[in-house]
Structure formats: C-alpha cells, structure tokens
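Human: For the file, kindly provide a plain-text protein record giving the amino acid sequence and the backbone structure tokens, at your earliest convenience.
Assistant:
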Amino acid sequence: MRVGEGGRRESEPALPDKISAIDGALTADRIDHAFGGALALAYYAEPRMTIDIDVNVFRPPEHHGAVADALLPLGVVPRDDTAALERDGQARWWWNRTPVDLFFSYDPVHEAMREGVRRVFFGEERIPILGPEHLMVCKAVYNRPKDWIDIEQMLLLGDDIDRSEVNDWIGRIAGAGDPRSVRLEELLGRDA
C-alpha cells in the first residue's frame, strides 16, 4: 500500500495494469519496445506464472535516461548502476515489488527483433511482443532449464516459426559449435 492524495491508501496496481501502463508510457514517449519473457510466451505456448515484466527497448543502453523519464512517473525506479546497464545492455528496475527487466539494443539481433514485433490483444488493447523466433533465440541464449521447456512447448504448439531465422541468429550469437546452438538445432530439426 502507498498513501495517495488526502492520505488515502492506494493499492499497488495488478500485474496486467502495470503492463498496460508501461506500454502506454513508452508508446506516449515514442520509445519502440516489445514485451518478452513469460508474457510473450503465453501467446506461443502454454502460459506459465511470472512475477516480472520483461521489456525489450529498441534504443541503445546510453539512452536509458529517456526510458527512465517515461517510466518513473508510473513508479518504476531505476537502479543506480548505470555503468553496468551501459556495459551489459540490460537492467532490473523495480515497480514496488515487481521487477521490470529492461533489455536495450546493442546488437543487430535487436533490430531484427524490432522488425519482427507482433501486436497482440491484451485485454481490450493491443501490445507489442517479441516474435516467436526472437523469443526462442533469447531463451536459448539464457540457457536455463525452464527456457528449454518453453522452447519445446513453442515448437509443439507453434506452426509459424521461421526455423531458419532462429538457427541463423543463435549461430551468430552463440557460435555454431556452442552447446546451445547444437541443442536448439536438434530441437528444430526434430520437430520440423
């Protein structure tokens, strides 16, 4: 709870309301973006629970100030470690108890992600999400056990995935002999 005007207690917005507000704030400031993570996954595979909001911001890391200016009025608080943000191209900011994970653009794959954005219904409105190919590449790069389960689900339920796009990007990012590339290539071939 927080205290609003006149001393009234205000409850924290629900996760869907936060997603809509983030989309609205970034759109109003003309900051191209797309939601990723479990939110995007829900449109391509079996939905799973999440407590965070993953946002790909199609601006370079050094433009994080414009993103902060857009999100701060909502209550999203940037971390102070700008050197790490600019070095890594990502940051975890907080909206009360909700992590907001931001991924900035620093590689050609991010331009491909921007071009491949899909707009989907989220309640009564439409929001941008990563295309399935780029979401799959992100999941393979992160290489967590839950990501491989997500990839298998996407392949089981999705029939419009451009497998060559996935293979091209994972090969470019991780390298042809990298275990992540090999594993993803096997999954893509097996489920073709």
Observations:
- DSSP finds nine helices and nine strands in the chain.
- The longest strand covers residues 98-104.
- The domain at 1-130 is CATH 3.30.460.40 (Beta Polymerase; domain 2).
